[in-house]
Amino acid sequence: MSPKPNLWQMLCSVLAAFFGVQSSHNLQRDFSSGHALTYFLLGAAVLVGFVAFVIFLITLALSLAGA
Amino acid sequence: MNCIAKGMLGAGSLLPLAVAADWQVNLEPGVTEISQAVFDLHMTIFWICVAIGVVVFGVMLWSIIHHRKSRGAKAHNFHESTVVEITWTIIPFFILIAMAVPATATLIKMYDKNGADLDIQVTGYQWKWRYQYLGEDIDFFSSLSTPKEQIQNQAEKGEHYLLEVDNPLVIPAGKKVRFLMTANDVIHSWWVPALAVKKDAIPGFINEAWTVVPEPGIYRGQCAELCGKDHGFMPIVVDVRSEADYQLWLAEMKQAKVQAADAATKDWTLAELMEKGEEVYNRACAACHQANGEGIPGAFPALKNSPMVVAADPAAHIDIVLNGKAGTAMQAFRDQLNAVELAAVITYERNAWGNTSGDLVSPAQISELKQ
Q1: Residue B306: which residues within 8 A CB-CB, separation 6 or more?
Q2: Sign of torsion over alpha carbons B198, B200, B206, B207
Q3: Does B80 touch chain A if contact means CB atoms closer than 8 Å?
Q4: What ipTM was predicted for this assembly?
């Protein structure tokens, strides 16, 4: 049984899921020792952050374009 | 080598250069600043794709040849390589970002519709275009003018076969012209490649596009959205004129409108209306009801021997031509034709192809109904 992943490791796993590439070792660790609900909540938080970032980028681009 | 292969090679080597020169595959650079920007963007992305193709297929080909079984190559057996996977994800990501930067810059230019010198409403109909010059009181329809004989292979096809119209859209050179696109029946798409303008015309919606054409000239396009039976027969011709010539054209159009109104008050003979009516019928009605008035069974009704057309009272006939018929392909021609044209075409239908109503519908009668 792998040691329970810490918050940083879980965040890295969520980001890896967003990116689409994860190492087999971390995948095994997350599935054997992690808690699904924690990953769902972290994933939702990262998603909200990503959408906010995209909105910020669009606003910035439009303001630079003089719209 | 067999005879067929020899023949094909021979034909290929004899392909006239002139034919090859006319055969264009690539996007055309066009004549406006925007069309040039679109062309440059297209070529930039094309060459990026070529480079990717060369690298990817080059590595693949080299690997296939260099590591072939006959040379004793043994396959590596591994499950994953995080580094390789991240690399082949990151590289396309940056390539896409690099493509998005010039694409966004071009799109921003294309969507800048501010500061137009002239607004024209473009409405798609089955199967013609209507141009309304907002604020100028100019409104006309533009229909295919290629003779039927050419379409039916009874005459040699002209230089601008299926790309010629009776009334081209006339715009001034060097001025920003904004097009407000919509449609009357189904979705059409107004497309003129040389101007890099291609915009859907959708019933109930107004889409916008614009152009500034620096030099006078004739530019041709087509409907780019499958819109029914005669989708391929509703071309677009844009006649770009110098400012002075454009002003002259505006004055002529306004004068013609006054003359058309005067003509509606004149007394027309049956022969005059029949002559005019035949011309209008072939331009506006024959696509559906056919030149011989027999229609297309199951799709478009015959006018020859039609009870409505030969009835003693022309009211129902006039009503359907003016107002169309809901739920069918029969359009309302109230705005598409002037009073003389409407009177002429109705009179023609009532007296052509053996129809013998013998009556005459006068332009004055139509003018009254149009009000």
Answers
A1: B355
A2: negative
A3: yes
A4: 0.71
Among all residues of chain B, which has the CA nearest to that of A18? Answer: B89
B31-110 CATH pick, 3.40.1360.10, 3.40.50.720, 3.40.1440.10, 1.10.287.90? 1.10.287.90
Query: Per CATH, the architecture of B118-258 is what?
Result: Sandwich (2.60)
Residue matched to tokens 């005019």: B276
Give the Cα separation of B269 and B330 in Å (integer): 28
For B167-222, write each residue's pLDDT tens digit: 999 999 999 999 999 999 899 999 999 999 999 999 999 999 999 999 999 999 99
Cβ–Cβ gap A20/B79 under 8 Å: no
Q: What is the pTM for the complete model shown?
A: 0.75
Contacts with A, B 92-121, CB within 8 Å:
104, 108
Lowest mean pLDDT among A42-46, B11-15, B128-132, B232-236: B11-15
B89 touches chain A (CB under 8 A): yes
pLDDT for residue B10: 45
